[in-house]
Design brief:
There is one protein chain. With 137 residues, the chain is mostly helical. It has one domain. 23% of the residues are buried. The model has no long low-confidence stretch (mean pLDDT 97).
Length: 137
């Protein structure tokens, strides 16, 4: 069961990315209720991911990338930016949500594009990290 968590986490990252894109399209079309539901779904998917990620790595430890050469360099650069932006993303998501929940929509609109971009990057690179670490190499 624990060994399947990385695959589940990759699926949760994929779900988060799809929900983010759906939320973006919904707000562009003026569908605020749908936007809210999709964005809260993205938060839930990301929160479940974090729980699975922390559980897996607390029980299994670090997984080392087996590739070498240029592909290892690409992997490590992607992992570094993914990890750094994941930390930034937590704060951006919380701040963006707080502005929305408190009705400070002008502030929400100013920060939301940054949050969306960082969150989408983290979600997509999370899938790529999984594929590179557990499937391709």
């Amino acid at each position: 069961m624990i060994d399947s968590l990385p695959a589940v986490d990759a699926c949760l990252n994929g779900a988060s990315a799809l929900l983010l894109c759906g939320g973006f399209l919904a707000i562009r079309r003026g569908r605020k209720s749908l936007h809210k539901a999709l964005m809260l779904g993205a938060v839930a998917a990301s929160a479940l991911f974090l729980i699975g990620y922390l559980t897996y790595h607390s029980l299994r430890g670090t997984t080392h990338f087996p590739g070498t050469g240029a592909v290892r360099t690409v992997y490590l650069l992607m992992l570094f930016t993914h990890s750094l932006l994941a930390l930034v993303n937590v704060h951006l998501v919380i701040l963006t949500l707080l502005h929305a929940f408190k009705g400070r929509f002008e502030r929400h609109r100013r920060i939301a594009p940054w949050t969306f971009g960082v969150w989408l990057y983290v979600s997509v690179t999370g899938i790529l990290v999984y594929l590179m670490l557990y499937r391709w190499f």
